[in-house]
Amino acid sequence: MEIIKNKTSMINGNIRPNGHEPEVVKEKAETIISIRRLALPTSDYTDHENYQLLWIAEGVESITVDFDTIPFYPNTIIFLTPGKFINLDFSDSPPAGWILGFSRDFFKNQNLEGLNIKNADIFHAYDDMPRIVLSPKIGERVHSIAEMMAEFAGSEIPNKEVAISALLRALLVYCDSKCNLKPSFGNNRQDLNIVSLFKYHVSRHFLEHHLVSDYAQLMNITPKYLNQVVKRVMGVTAKSIIQEQLLIQASRDLKFSNESIKEIAFKLGFAEPEHFSHFFKKSTGKTPSLFRNT
Question: Do the Cβ atoms of 30 and 105 come closer than 8 Å?
Fold first, then answer.
């Protein structure tokens, strides 16, 4: 069996300020937690570096995740893995809710063994969005916990990061017990870790690396073995995971940027715009121009 030879280091980053400045807590050098309220006019809460826990009480009509729109219900919690495009369509009333962001290392280092949410980045490939709809009473409790976390983050209390981490872990455990994730495969831990690490690298490097062999080299395993593991766990090829990330970014740029199709093609790492157009049409059935204008 081919195994990972070297431990791959993880690079963490803060959630970039968008709307209200988030309170940021550092637990040692490698752990970062940020806390902020939902606020107008911010509607794009995409984060390419961190996991996010969104609690939305009210003030939203619908939620778009990677161009799939899902209906909104009051007191909804959504768990997002890094790189997920998230856009909120606000209603007439002011939005109410919180966004908790935390680094990949923080999430992976928590004592969450036996919880489905630990491998949420793998479940996302099955079109399962880890989410729950809370009762108003429980929603009030979540709001109280988020307020406590924000209060700790903005204070000078000694060891405040310990309290914030404990509160966040409690939320994760609660969300796992109530969310819609239902595992349907019985893979070993090493396979799950390999796929999770592969998806992490794809989310960070898909603009410059389009080949499975590029990621296999980063992970110190062979392309054949990487593809076998991805296929065994997810039922799809490793190449399709890379192409899915490219397609999501391309769709987002076509819809929400003023960049030309040529500029988008080069940004996504295609040598020629024609190659990008062929890839996009083959994947969606539409040319980039037609997709942009519909």
Answer: yes
Pair (67, 132) in one structural domain: yes
147/162 Cα distance (integer angstroms) = 16
pLDDT(130) > 50: yes
Q: Is-contact 269 207, C-beta < 8 A?
A: yes
Look at residue 27 and tell me if it is in a domain.
yes
Tell whether 18 is covered by a domain.
Answer: no
The mean-pLDDT minimum among 56-60, 102-106, 155-159, 163-167 falls in: 102-106
Report the distance separating Cα 217 and Cα 199, nearest Å.
14
Out of 121-135, 165-179, 205-219, the most confident range is 205-219
Cβ-count burial of 281 within 10 angstroms (0-12 exposed, 13-18 middle, 19+ buried)? middle
In which band, very low, low, confident or very high, does the pLDDT at 29 lie, cut at 50, 70 and 90?
Answer: very low
pLDDT digits (tens, 9 = 90+) for 243-273: 988 998 898 889 888 999 999 999 999 999 9
* β-strand partners of 63: 70, 88
DSSP state letters, 265-279: HHHTT-SSHHHHHHH
Instruction: From 44, 55, 57, select the one nearest 15 (Cα to Cα).
Output: 44
Shared-domain flag, residues 173 and 193: no
Rounded to whole angstroms, how far apart are CA atoms 244 and 210? 11
Query: Cβ of 256: how many Cβ atoms within 10 Å?
Result: 11
Q: How many Å apart are CA 32 and CA 24, to the nearest integer? A: 7
Residues 116 and 202 in one domain: no
Question: How many structural domains is the chain composed of?
Answer: 2
Mean confidence (pLDDT) of the chain = 78
Q: Is 231 exposed, middle or buried (0-12, 13-18, 19+ CB in 10 A)?
A: middle
56 and 174 co-located in one domain: yes
Nearest Cα residue to 120 out of 78, 57, 89: 78
User: Using the 8-state DSSP alphabet, how is residue 6 labeled?
Assistant: S
